[in-house]
Fold this protein.
Amino acid sequence: MNRDPLRTTPAAADGATHPHRPEASPNAELIRSAYRAFHTRDLPALLGTLAPDVRWVHPDSMSAYGLGGVKHGHAGVREFLARVPRVLGGMRLEPQEFVECGDRVVVFGERDVTSLSGRTERLKFVHSWTLSDGRVAVMEDVFDTALLHELIEG
């Protein structure tokens, strides 16, 4: 059977397979495991999904807070994740839809972001994950930074 290379599947909150959607591909399952590791704050498990030379990309406009631009390798990801609690009180990601094409998985979702003062806002995101040799080579986070700036400043 010739399958369409572009596949869209809704995300289960716990990463489990939903009975009405196709079985997750190895790429989508790897990305789901990265979200689970982020959710449980399991840094070794998260890094295990990433290539040693991963490119971790966030909007340049977040650079003023140490959260923008490209971070390189596991050390760069660790540096980024260590910086987040210095400017935010918390963050919870909710991936909602996975779209796959070849070695790319694009995830549409929402995140609850809490400021250091305790205010929480829901922000939409798009994560583009590019895989190589069964690991994440590039992760790019795309979102409207204006509200996040407001949360950080407020």
Notes: The chain has a mean pLDDT of 88. DSSP finds four helices and seven strands in the chain. The first strand starts at residue 6 and ends at 10. The helical segments are 26-39, 43-49, 73-87, 145-153.
